[in-house]
Structures are given as C-alpha cells and as structure tokens.
Amino acid sequence: MRSYVNYHQNNWPRVLSTAQYRFNNNVNTVTSKTRFSLILYFTPTIRINPTTDSIASEKTPDTRYKVKTREEFSKTYQEIWMKTQEVIRRYYNKRRKTQLFEEDQKILLSIKYIRVRKLYRKLTDRFLGSFKITKRVGENVY
What we know:
Blueprint: H1 12-24, H2 35-39, H3 63-95, E1 106-110, E2 127-132
Antiparallel strand pairs: 1-2
C-alpha cells in the first residue's frame, strides 16, 4: 500500500482496489497459482473504463461453465492443498522440539511470551518459577 499512496497519504481509498487486485493477482510460490485462480477459478481483469466492461459486451462467464471448471480443477486443487500442507508441516517440524514431561517433575517457564510487569524487562529473570507438573491433559498440554 505504501507504494501506491501519495506523500500526504490522502488518496489511499482511491487506490485501494488497485492494490487489492495486485495482491490477489500475485503467484504463490507453494501453489504456483494466484488467489483469484484458486478461489474464483478465473483471473478477472481490472477495468479502467466501466462502460466497456464484460457485462455490456455479454462476455460474462456462464454458471454452467463455472460449475464445470470447478469440477475439473477440484482434484488438482486438492492435490495442491495437500502439497502445501506437507510443505508447511515440514518447515514447522524442522524447528519443533518434542519435550515430554513426567508427573511430579518440576519445570521452569520462559517469560518470552509472558507479560511481566517490571520496570525493565531486560533486567528481569528469564524464567519463572519452579512449577510441578500435576496432570497431563494433552500431547503438549500439562
């Protein structure tokens, strides 16, 4: 959005649709498709002159054509979705550390994502507590 607005930043409502179109028309690196082609099953064109749009020239996509296209590409998009999930799972599991704790074991909690109300965060302790594990609720929930 920063590259579309002017210096005074007062024209952003006028250029918002252009920026949105540009964002949705980018090709995703994992799926190799645009958001338009995945959701709408076609890539719309941006119309500068509304008097010569596709409705006036009767080139609007037919409903039967949309249904046929969705049925044809449904399997392809499901395969792309599975591939995307596998890539995300691989990158997620690359940094994930499995830590299993036993009941009655004592642990320390990192304050990295806990809000601590101290004057200087840099000078606070990095870990809280010594907490005793009483019960395991889920795979990573105690």
